[in-house]
Specification:
By secondary structure, the protein is α+β, with helices and mostly antiparallel strands. The chain is built from three helices and four strands. It has helices spanning about 40-50, 70-80, 95-100, and strands spanning about 5-15, 15-25, 55-60, 65. The protein is globular, with a radius of gyration of 16 Å. The termini are far apart.
């Protein structure tokens, strides 16, 4: 079984097809990269795989579960994306940026600590 599987995934932006019927499997220990020219849909593909966008058709399976059926918290515990352009409204240190990935694992009343 793949850690992450895309099955017949199709994605559109403003009625323009970014990918059609993409199928692939990523196994534990594998490293993949997404390459392409500016504006061809790399970020859109990653956002869709992370469940931040809804695909036109197809399935995204993570740990044998459909990504679109996972709760936001469960998705955040399993996936993380750090884009090249940081669109935050406040300056953040590298430590602050890394610690944001811990939020889904914390109790809502618990704070972060640096060990």
């Amino acid at each position: 079984m793949s850690l992450l599987a895309l099955k017949n995934l199709s994605i559109e932006i403003s009625n323009t097809c970014v990918c059609r019927d993409l199928s692939l499997g990523i196994n534990p220990g594998e490293v993949w990269s997404v390459l392409g020219r500016n504006g061809v849909g790399k970020s859109t593909l990653l956002k869709t795989v992370a469940g931040l966008r809804t695909p036109v058709s197809g399935q995204i399976i993570l740990d044998d579960q459909e990504v679109m059926n996972l709760s936001r918290r469960s998705r955040a515990q399993r996936l993380g994306i750090l884009f090249q352009e940081n669109e935050t409204l406040f300056p953040a240190s590298v430590l602050d940026t890394v610690l944001t990935g811990r939020h889904p694992w914390l109790n809502p009343l618990q704070g972060e600590s640096v060990e």
